[in-house]
Structure formats: C-alpha cells, structure tokens
Design goal:
8 strands, 4-stranded mixed β-sheet, alpha/beta
C-alpha cells in the first residue's frame, strides 16, 4: 500500500562545478553528453519503485550503481548527474552538490510503502512523522 507524502517537480542533481551548474533551468537535451546515474534496483525491480524521475528514459550514457558515495564520486569525476526531487540533505552529501530545475514538466510522488491492512510499527510512525517535519521545513 503506497501512501503519498507529497508531489514534486523534477530537478537535475549534479556537482556544483558541473558545466551546467550555473543554469537556472536545464533541458533534457542539454544532458545527453553527460552520464546519467541511477540506482541499481536488482533483477526483480519495478520502474514504479525507481528512485529517479524518468527512470525509463533512454539516455545516451547511463551508469548504474548501488552505492550513494560511488554516485557522488562519479558526479565529480565524470560530470555525471541524476534526476531527483530537488530536496538535498547536506548532512548526508556535503555542500558540493546542487539541484537545478528540469525544464520538462515532470513530477514524482514521494511516499512510503507498507503492507496493506497492517498497522505501522511505533518506530515506523515516528520515522514517517520525522520525514513529514523535514519535508515541511524544506518545502517552505
């Protein structure tokens, strides 16, 4: 059972010294010469659970990884990028990365999945409440 927390527009997540980092808006066509990073979801994955916007888009260059730190290093070393919600946590990733609005009108639903007809655990409820607080702070 999916519970939506919010809907957000698409952003390009990249290193702050990327050649496109100074732009206010980036078009998909401008990204074609740079590698697109995505998280490997395993053999039995579903695009419904992808972490990135436009996960089925046919980018010219794609690199799949299952490690956040590796992706951050590839952003710096290869001028790679990923598509995201635009919400960046500097506590996790540092201050060397930015999100630039994607020109194309795409959005994604952010939420959580739990087993239908089962109650969320106490710690699960606390976690979701903390996520809601963080999102409310960030989106204001």
């Amino acid at each position: 059972e999916f519970t939506k927390l919010f809907t957000c527009n698409g952003y390009v997540y990249l290193w702050k010294h990327h050649p496109l980092a100074e732009k206010e808006v980036i078009e998909l066509s401008e990204l074609q010469e740079y590698p697109c990073l995505s998280f490997e979801q395993g053999d039995n994955n579903s695009f419904y659970f992808a972490e990135e916007i436009l996960s089925t888009y046919d980018f010219k260059k794609t690199i799949k990884s299952n490690d956040r730190a590796t992706n951050l290093n590839l952003m710096v070393g290869l001028n790679a990028f990923t598509l995201c919600s635009g919400i960046i946590c500097e506590e996790l990733n540092g201050s060397d990365f930015i999100a630039v609005k994607l020109a194309e009108n795409v959005s994604m639903d952010i939420g959580y999945i739990k087993r239908a007809h089962l109650n969320m655990s106490e710690i699960g409820n606390i976690y979701i409440e903390e996520v809601r607080k963080y999102i409310n702070e960030v989106l204001q």
